[in-house]
Amino acid sequence: MLIDGYDGATLDKIREVCQELFHRNYITEYVFSPNESLKKANVSYSFIMSHYDALEELLDCSGWRLHHDEQVRVLYLTSDYTSAKVVLSKIESYFLLALRLLYDDRKSKASASGEVFITARDIVEQLTTLGAVDSVPKQDREKALRTLGGKNIISRMAGKWGDMDARLAILPSVICAISSEKTSNVLDMLSEGAPGEGVPGEGAEEDAGEDGEDGI
After folding, report:
1. Which residue among 38, 63, 81 closes a domain?
2. pTM, whole model, 2 decimals?
């Protein structure tokens, strides 16, 4: 294998980024730090891109496929094993839908560096406008945001997770988590008044292996 020629320090870093892929699902080119509005280069992304072929070969032997979305510069894993599928609650799924809609709507109006910043209130208002929910209790709101933050789809900039005024950055990984086609399908379902059954997602969100109520 290609990694056979690597030294100990590089192998340690490979273990580290693989664990990050397994637990975070998405690795973006840039990251944010709490209370900072400026993005910085993600060293994990840079490392994986520098050793992409070796990591791709290693992960393939373990039943995982490494993907790189060149358009939004996001790395993620997929797997054919159903046990690797992420499962989100209905509220978490709807939050993912709202994030994709907000991202698409505000991307053209984003800051000079291209970031899309929102508040938790924006998400809830988006969902109530769609008729997906009447309201979201603070506990459910906090859980949904923590889950999506843990999967590297959003980054908390300021405030607490459960606060309506918590400031968030929507990361480009949302494009990989739920496609425009699936977003449209769910919007059609909501417009027809069909009962919500969770939002189907894709990319690494199908493959992270968490338990929950509804799949995405």
Report:
1. 81
2. 0.85
